């Protein structure tokens, strides 16, 4: 083929015309699928932890929307929070329950979501390699610490280290996904890791790490999160959002009743994490404290601290109005409808309940 | 000056395609008269990047993708400038270049040795080379889980993976260089009764140099690509790390800034090597005809 100016120009014209052939059509009718996401686990099957895991395990949404012919799709990406943000931005998700930090980062980057309820809280565990010679939190100075960056453990580490006068910059952070963390601990390349109970305690069971510290109690550094909805979906389908939230609150209540404790462990064990890791993680804890959906003073204080941290770390470049993001009107109505006003007691900013 | 060599080599080569391409180039250049030749070339070379930039701006303007996924080019420009001003980008770039240099030196050097050995000693070629080739043909990513367990996730892992990637191109090119060398060169050397050392220095080495330099170029470009990959998986510094961090922080402008730097630096490295190749072994292009 001869490359002439004419073919070159012709090609250029074709490239210029290409965009106009696109047209974006958005169906406003009832959706045929509702997509939900939660953070994935280091290993095992794509089931969730906490209330979102129970929501899936009890198949409340599947039953709720079966008469409407609406499918429910679940995603539990290994990339956890950051991957969920990408899916939200791509409009591949409608709802997600995930860690407070990526949650804030996503909203800060301009992904239009609204908080419907809290995800509950969960202790953060610091697991250390027995041979690393780390006896106290202060010993972490200069050591190699692994966790998935861009997740809430960024904030957890900062709060835990602040307790002994250290900063995140005082340790060497390795950005590793779950399975790689295990390998790195095994080979002695990292000395410590941060994670939730089901991950770290499973490694304790296999003898790879010892628990140096946990925020069970809870202490500062516990993970928190939000159950959010994509704004464009919420505006088009307010009735569906109310029904999904209702199911979510039902799941939270199920996860808060002590009589369900054994059933809860069974459902969470579907993730593939050992059942005993959940038993140890939840031992002695009030289930209602762990899985409260309330957008109370404690939740708001956590989110505000998270926003301050992300701004300081330049993870979020433009601050946004937290109170506008957190819409508790629908949650309050749902709780009243279900008669669940007294199931959970609102906590103050310091995590204590009002007396 | 090497540019002259390049042009004359084309003129001598005079393959039909080159002639057509040359004509087309001149035809286009005619539309920009009264400009020095090189300026016209640069302008022409910028047409495609600018067209791409225009398409990108248009896509952002039309919101084909969410702004968080396809950031505004202006934002990417600001972020790049910011990353350069704070010294973060040059710092990460230096780390990455250091790793590639180390990997290329180790892997390329070994590849060169093995290639020469296989080319020169027939038994080695028959009994050892197939195994070495088979090992090399398992992609670097396939080796990664194993390497991670053996070498850990430190600096060694990165350099070994890059070295592994750089090994094969140089081994193959050195081997081919030796095997496909015209026999007449040896005949001439024998006729001149050159001593062994002089034969290697004056005849053998120059005759395989073009193939080796091509191998180095390939090794460098593959090593550069694999570097970014390794840095994305486990690292606390380097361009790949910066890219991954941008993704984790959901700042795609940082990812784009890194992508552009990776592309430009990779291209510049290849371009510099090509120029060096033409300068050092320009004769081989003439004799190719």
From TrEMBL, chain A:
InterPro entries: SsuA/THI5 (IPR015168), TAT_signal (IPR006311). It comes from Xaviernesmea oryzae. Residues 65-255 form the SsuA/THI5-like domain. It comes from the Bacteria. PROSITE patterns: TAT. This is Sulfonate transport system substrate-binding protein. Gene3D superfamilies: Periplasmic binding protein-like II.
TrEMBL record, chain B:
GO terms for cellular component: plasma membrane. This is Sulfonate transport system permease protein. It comes from Xaviernesmea oryzae. Its main location: membrane. It comes from the Bacteria. The chain crosses the membrane at residues 38-59, 100-120, 132-153, 226-244, 250-269. Residues 89-273 form the ABC transmembrane type-1 domain. It is found in: Cell membrane. The keyword Transmembrane applies. The keyword Transmembrane applies. It is a multi-pass membrane protein. InterPro entries: MetI-like, MetI-like_sf. Coiled coil: none annotated. PANTHER family: ALIPHATIC SULFONATES TRANSPORT PERMEASE PROTEIN SSUC-RELATED, ALKANE SULFONATE ABC TRANSPORTER-RELATED, MEMBRANE SUBUNIT. Belongs to the binding-protein-dependent transport system permease family. Keywords: Cell membrane, Membrane, Transmembrane, Transmembrane helix, Transport. One of its GO terms (biological process) is transmembrane transport.
């Amino acid at each position: 083929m001869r490359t002439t100016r004419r073919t070159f120009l012709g090609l250029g014209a074709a490239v210029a015309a290409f965009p106009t052939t696109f047209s974006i059509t958005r169906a406003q009718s009832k959706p045929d699928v509702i997509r939900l996401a939660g953070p994935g686990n280091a290993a095992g099957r794509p089931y969730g932890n906490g209330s979102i895991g129970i929501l899936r395990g009890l198949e409340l949404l599947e039953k709720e929307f079966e008469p409407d012919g609406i499918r429910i799709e679940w995603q539990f990406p290994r990339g956890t929070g950051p991957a969920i943000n990408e899916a939200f931005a791509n409009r591949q998700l409608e709802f997600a329950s995930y860690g407070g930090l990526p949650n804030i980062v996503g909203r800060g980057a301009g992904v239009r979501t609204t908080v419907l309820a809290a995800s509950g809280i969960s202790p953060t565990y610091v697991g250390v390699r027995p041979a690393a010679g780390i006896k106290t939190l202060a010993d972490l100075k200069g050591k190699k610490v692994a966790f998935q960056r861009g997740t809430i453990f960024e904030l957890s580490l900062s709060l835990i280290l602040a307790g002994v006068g250290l900063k995140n910059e005082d340790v060497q952070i390795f950005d590793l996904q779950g399975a790689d963390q295990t390998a790195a601990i095994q080979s002695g390349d990292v000395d410590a890791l941060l994670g939730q109970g089901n991950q770290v305690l499973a490694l304790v069971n296999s003898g790879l790490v010892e628990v140096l510290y946990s925020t069970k109690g809870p202490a500062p550094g516990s993970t928190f999160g939000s159950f959010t909805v994509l704004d464009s979906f919420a505006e088009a389908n307010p009735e569906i959002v109310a029904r999904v939230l209702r199911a979510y609150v039902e799941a939270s209540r199920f996860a808060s009743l002590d009589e369900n404790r054994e059933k809860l462990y069974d459902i969470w064990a579907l993730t593939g994490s050992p059942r005993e890791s959940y038993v140890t993680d939840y031992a002695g804890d009030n289930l209602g404290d762990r899985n409260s959906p309330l957008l109370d003073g404690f939740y708001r204080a956590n989110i505000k601290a998270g926003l301050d941290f992300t701004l300081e770390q330049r993870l979020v470049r433009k601050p946004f109005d937290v109170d506008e993001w957190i819409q508790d009107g629908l949650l309050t109505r749902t709780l009243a409808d279900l008669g669940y006003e007294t199931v959970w007691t609102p906590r103050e900013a310091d995590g204590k309940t009002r007396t | 000056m090497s540019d002259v060599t390049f042009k004359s080599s084309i003129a001598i080569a005079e393959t039909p395609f080159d002639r057509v391409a040359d004509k087309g180039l001149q035809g286009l250049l005619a539309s920009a008269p009264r400009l020095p030749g090189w300026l016209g070339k640069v302008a022409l070379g910028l047409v495609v990047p600018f067209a791409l930039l225009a398409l990108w701006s248009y896509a952002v303007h039309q919101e084909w993708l969410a702004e968080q996924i396809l950031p505004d080019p202006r934002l990417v420009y600001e972020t790049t400038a910011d990353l350069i001003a704070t010294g973060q980008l040059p710092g990460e770039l230096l780390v990455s270049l250091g790793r590639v240099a180390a990997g290329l030196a180790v892997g390329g050097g070994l590849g060169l040795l093995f290639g020469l050995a296989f080319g020169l000693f027939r038994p080695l070629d028959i009994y050892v080379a197939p195994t070495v080739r088979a090992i090399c043909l398992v992609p670097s990513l396939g080796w990664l889980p194993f390497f991670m367990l053996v070498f850990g996730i430190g600096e060694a892992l990165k350099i070994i993976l890059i070295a592994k990637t750089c090994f094969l191109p140089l081994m193959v090119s050195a081997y081919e260089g030796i095997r496909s060398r015209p026999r007449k060169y040896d005949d001439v050397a024998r006729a001149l009764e050159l001593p062994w050392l002089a034969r290697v220095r004056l005849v053998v080495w120059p005759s395989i140099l073009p193939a080796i330099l091509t191998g180095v170029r390939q090794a460098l470009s593959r090593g550069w690509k694999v570097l970014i990959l390794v840095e994305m998986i486990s690292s606390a510094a380097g361009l790949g790390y910066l890219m991954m961090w941008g993704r984790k922080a959901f700042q795609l402008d940082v990812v784009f800034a890194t992508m552009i730097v990776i592309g430009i630096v990779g291209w510049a490295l290849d371009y510099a090597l090509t120029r060096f190749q033409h300068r050092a072994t320009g004769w081989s292009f003439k004799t190719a005809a």
